[in-house]
Amino acid sequence: MKRDKSGPVSLTVLIAFAANVLVAAAKTVAALISGSASMTAEAAHSWADTGNQVFLLIAERKAARKRDKSHPMGYGREAYVWSMIAAFGLFTAGAVVSVMHGIQQLITPEPPGDYGIAYVVLAVAFVLEGVSFTQALRQTRKAAREFDRNTLEQVLKSSDPTLRAVFAEDGAALIGLLIAFAGMALHQATGSSVPDAVGSILVGLLLAGIAVVLIERNRRFLVGQAVPADIEAGMARRLLEHPDIERLTYLHLEFVGPRKLYVVAAVDMQGDRREHDVAAALRRVERELEDHETVEEAVLTLSTADEASLVFPAG
């Protein structure tokens, strides 16, 4: 069965966190020296990203807890809750602050300051953000190859919200740096603060768009996002390849966390065995399914003779 995995992402999140702390501090100093609205927006962006990495690390830790009596399906959905909080943080601390500062700059223009240090910070920030984005891109492409998906499709479909957030935020950071560079350069060349202010607003709108997408994806998984057809087909093939199973007439898969599935299936067992033997075989198949790292719980029932067999494409 193909697994919906993006690989371990703790390293990806930690790299993003370290990069954002350094970048945020440098951008803040550059914003104070240059007085650039675009740089101020970028500083707000990086501090928002830094805080978000903390939420994403919390999401990973909480989602990894083993299931217990109070949470029979595990704690996997904690990842979507904390990732959604991080997305709201990106919207409020990054997008809103950037847009408001840009509007303020339009209303009360400030003269350009020393942009030399700002350009240096932008260059260093681009390198650091590029390192973080490369790590996220590597993890995403690895998972995308497994499912024969393109990279963007994997980002949107993956059940792993932390990697999706890091990928989206780092990608937005690189675009934001280019916008800030253009805004400052035009401010310096024309003497008008309008391009710089517009750059700040554009950075804010970019962050708002990313935040809305992340919030929507987390919402979908919290309320019961449908499992992609390729994962469903992979599970069906795994069941039908089991020596004890002859037919599959019903299959329900549900994400209960990042790369974690709840499996319910109706099957027709091989041969015509006694009730006790059939029950033992069903339980054995359930345990074998649950041994797989992506299955949180499996529940199998028996099909009746009149139920039609499910047909899935060969993989």
Mind explaining what this structure looks like?
The chain has 2 domains: 10-223, Up-down Bundle (Alpha-lytic protease prodomain-like), CATH 1.20.1510.10; 229-302, 2-Layer Sandwich (Alpha-Beta Plaits). The chain is built from 9 helices and 3 strands, in the order H-H-H-H-H-H-H-H-E-E-H-E. The protein has helices at residues 10-34, 37-63, 78-107, 116-147, 151-157, 161-190, 194-223, 229-240, 275-290, and strands at 245-257, 260-269, 295-302. A 3-stranded mixed sheet has the order 1-2-3. A hairpin with a 2-residue loop joins strand 1 (245-257) and strand 2 (260-269). The longest helix is centred in the middle third of the chain and has 32 residues, at 116-147. It is elongated and about 85 Å long. Mean pLDDT is 84; it is low at 1-8.
Identify the notable features of this structure and list them briefly.
315 residues, mainly alpha, Alpha-lytic protease prodomain-like, Alpha-Beta Plaits, 66% helix, 10% strand
